[in-house]
Fold these 2 entries.
Entry 1:
Amino acid sequence: MQVRVRYAPSPTGLQHIGGVRTALFNYFFAKASGGKFYLRIEDTDQGRYDGRAVQDIYDTFEWLGITLDEGPREGGPFGPYIQSERIAFYQDAAEQLIASGHAYRCFCTASDLEKMRAEQAAAGSGTGYDRRCRSISPATASMRVAASERSVVRFKMPTEGSTVVRDILLGDVAWPNKDVSPDPVILKADGFPTYHLAHAVDDHLMQTSHVLRGQEWLPSAPLHVQLFQAFGWEPPLYCHLSTIMGQDGHKLSKRHGSTSAQEFRLGGYLPQAVTNYITLLGWSYDGEKDIFTKSELETLFSLEKLSKSPAVFDYQKLDYYNGYWIRQLPDADIARLIEPELAKAGLVGASAPVSSTERAILTSAVSIARERLHKLADAPAVLGFLFRDPPLTDSASYIPKKTTAPEVVAVLEKLLPEMAGISGRDDEANEHHFHSLAETWGLKVGQVLMPLRLAVTGTTASPPLMSSIRILGVDKAVARVKAVIELLKKA
Ligand code: GLU
């Protein structure tokens, strides 16, 4: 079977992690099976249309390297790929269902429906449309339409029996028809289709072989199967993907943290990491291998390895993958990627553009920072000391725990004459030198190096101290030590 799959988002907001996963799975499935992947914009709910959404989809795809075989901007043999440009197809399809007795015109007004609901509530009877317009004869309905009476088209959903949804992941799922929404609207009064009709028509016309989509669509799937049957069309093979949860077991939402691709893109995550981690939400290869490049996934991905259980989105794991993928990059690439982060934090580029001196510092700094960066946005915290003197506002912040200002001053004063030699030795030799100094002075290594680290970097957790001093420049480091001595003497 020629695999043809699609990503069919409704442009109602920014791309959500769940949507990104659906897109990635469809894309990888198409690639791995030599098929086609297309984008279809499902914008028939004009009330919820968000103008930023389509651009955001394209930006997200470009960022992740997802390429399209067909789509709104790419074109293709089954276009247009934007549903609002395909209205005539849906109207014809609705007429076809009316003609074959599978659908009917409903003339109920909003107030009729409200009254119906109130009566149902009072009687404690079932809710949902009571199918009252089913009994209007086709001839009468045509006359009322000709007389410009407003109407919608409803699908005659069977009330008895059950519908079997064949799902690649979940197996055959039998749904009692009475549990499916009664006679849902398929064409609205403004002539626009609802999602149910539009996507079925398009999946048929666009020769979609498989539908990989979120599990929230499973309850509508019996209706979709019935629609395909009513048209006499072969339905695509469905595959409803497991839900993505937060760590508290609730569906992933804003409450848990960033959920849009844009937030991750702007928040310093690498596309390699996002692709790697998101693909593991509900898919695994052999249960062991967990680092994948995009091109590996383009050949290794398969539907057999999908999981039915809900996937848990763990922000820490994403950071782990991000750190991993950052470390795979050459220094020059990391420098290029973190430069905007440092600029945002006002650490470089004060005299825009970023100066060549700053760039040189940055490039040599990457070697000491790469192990510490979980996100590109961590760069200002890790490397800020190279570009900005620690503030001399709080003398206590330069005094390690269990020591006093005079003790720190004494150590720093002893260190000052030793610092000049740093530039003549490599990091390892310097390390060794200061360790033996501590021994000679009868002090622990920490008692010597922690005051120095605080004075030079302003933090207790800087990258390795000797390399930090080398990259900062010994003169600057000496000046900082002197400034801290002054500050502590006044304290
Ligand atoms: N437009 C639907 C959505 O945004 C697509 C569902 C489907 O893939 O069939 O979720």
Note: The pocket of glutamic acid is lined by residues 8-10, 42, 195, 199, 211, 213, 217 (CB under 6 Å).
Entry 2:
Amino acid sequence: MSKLWGARFSKKSDPLADLFTFSISYDHRLAKYDVVGSIAHAQMLGKQGIIPKSDAVKIVTGLKKILGSIEKGKFKYDPKAEDIHTDIQSRLKSLIGKPADKLHTARSRNDQIVLDMKLYCRDEIAQLTAAVIGLQKAIVVFSKKNADVIIPAYTHMQAAQVVLLAHHMLAYVQMLERDKTRLFDCAKRGDFMPLGSCALSGTSLKIDRLYIAKLLGFSKVAANSMDAVSDRDFIVELISTCALATIHLSRMAEDLIFWVTQEFDLIDIDESFCTGSSIMPHKKNPDVLELIRGSSAKVVGYLTQIHVLLKGLPLTYNRDLQLDKPALFDSVDTTKNMLLVMTKIFASLKVKTANAAQRVKDESFFTVDVMDHLVKKGVSYRDAHDILGKMVSDCLKRGRALSSLSLGQLKQYSPALDGSVKKLLNPLMSVKMKASLGSTNPDLVHKQLDLWAKALGQ
Ligand code: ARG
């Protein structure tokens, strides 16, 4: 396979140098984008009369043939090619002969690779967004199915208060919504067309960059040729967005792993998403969730890798930039897979409602509700805190429940405490008492569920 730059060299490159520098083993994934970009470029060259129209037509026809084989899944990259640009170029040459040599007019691989990557990102952002929406939908369906279940909620890994399970679930939906807006931002900020920057300074040929941008669906052209060929911010942003999305997924996974423990026993994960032990026949382990939790480490690692790769890199193109690809491709693939697996897990998840009901009986969950009651009667928050602190401590020492205190005993803690306090000491009352916007109040949560279902087209 001949290289695109061989003429200046009298020596053949060392095979080890080839092995070390070739990117075809991973950039072959860009084949479709490389061809689509080249079609637009050739059309522009023909329209501008930079190359004869008849040659442009031959180039476009040849490229469309290659595109057809890519779309049918029949394209097999040539491992002897240096990169995907070289591979496509030489295929075109063998298809149409001499006119193929005119395709690279007013273009460098430096702007070509940025274009390929931008087209790749655009497609993947759409797929990632669809996967995020798919998971949001699965969570909303699961929450609606279990809309009245109440569970304990934690701070410091200590059971603290009770909430609707749906309220906890909608927290995930919010996280994912932010991921979606970040993906949207990535697409918006990356929406400029780099072609025409050539190696770095532009060209003296009369190209029409706006025309290529229009053909390829970009709304702007890159304003500075040096920035265009050296900028990889759009890659950093997409990896960063993926990294944060995987962190969200790892947090969800951790909650579910926690809930599936024998100690908690709140949910059941379908067997098809669990694995067994080679030595302990009774085990049913949440390995899929553990790998979701663990995979996030990989993407966070790639985020560090791309930052360090770019740090201190002088303008303009440097070959280091080639290494952005494995990091980005694997970040996107991993994130997408994690989203898809988590969606299936949610679709198969079952809540152990009897256990949930048992777990929310502890009356210490309701101390804040009693405090709020006292505040409504004019007691200061600080005093209410002290009163409840003393009550809880006494009850703990004597092994008693708050609800077992007589009216007389209640009055000893505070004259503002009356018999109605006992009505507060149950989980349903606790969630119903919450009234603030964004709280776990069932009416508000159910309204949120409806809003999400509508927004997600369910
Ligand atoms: N494989 C290269 C990359 O991924 C393509 C650009 C090569 N440009 C060059 N001047 N060697 O960045």
Note: The radius of gyration is 31 Å.
